[in-house]
Amino acid sequence: MDKIYFKDRYDKGEPDYLNCPFTKEEYYHFVETLLTGEKHQPHSFENDMTDEKMKFYQNCMPIEELAKRGKDTLRFGVMRPIGLERKGETPFAVLQLRPENHEHTAYNLVGCQTMLRYSEQKRIFRLIPGLEKAEFLRYGSLHRNSYLNAPEVLSDNLSLKNAPNVFVAGQLSGVEGYVECIASGLLVAKVISEDMSLLPPETIMGQIWRRLIDTNIQNFQPVNANFGLLPALNKPIRDKKQKKLALVERSIKALQDFLQNK
Ligand SMILES: Cc1cc2nc3c(=O)[nH]c(=O)nc-3n(C[C@H](O)[C@H](O)[C@H](O)COP(=O)(O)OP(=O)(O)OC[C@H]3O[C@@H](n4cnc5c(N)ncnc54)[C@H](O)[C@@H]3O)c2cc1C
Which of 48, 51, 160, 184 can pair with 175 through a Cys bridge, CB separation 3.0 to 4.6 Å? Predict the structure, then answer.
């Protein structure tokens, strides 16, 4: 604990995360080792994949794959140190640990999805400053993410084009995330029970829905909720917080109008 420290990025809320700071040398050594680590070889039934063919969902990219993109990719991504300064100094890179339980007796390594062999995970993740003697309760492994190529197979009302009595919601429909999938389930229930039409474009679910049926999208990937999906405000607002507030208010207003005119 003399190497690592509690801090949430930009000190938002009670500090919950533990931070492992890297020096320049430690960081590049870690990246090098990730690149040479031995990986789990997928079985043929896991996918028809050799390394080149393997398709990763962008939000679940294995850390060793990210490291392949460039030696600085990690420190500008999952290991970025900004907002995690210690005693006024910004480390070269930081790996964050997120508590797994209330007792704070177990942590997971943020952004460390991996296909490295278990023995390699133990060796390589112990290079992280502060984790030299870490005990590993569970090793990382990748999961397969099943989803439809929604724009190709779904109709505008989220039923299958070739089986219109079958409606698809949640992960399988190409929606990603807990809340998004719950919202998607409710949405499809409304479509079935009330023949609800496309939600207004000013709402996040309206935009997610549009993505699922947008036939212009090439290489469809599951969609998460985010403000970037929403159309720009008529009058641009610079302050980020105010901008989000304005987007939320516009969304609620659009939804109220939509429900009243239904
Ligand atoms: C490791 C991991 C971490 C994640 N972390 C986050 C996170 O931090 N935040 C976040 O927002 N999202 C996260 N997600 C994504 C999130 O879990 C999913 O987007 C969401 O749970 C999908 O909900 P769903 O109900 O559509 O599908 P699921 O939760 O996959 O539910 C589908 C259910 O159908 C059942 N089923 C499958 N086939 C059949 C069958 N033939 N008959 C009967 N039942 C069947 C399955 O057993 C399962 O219970 C994570 C996903 C994974 C895998």
Answer: 184
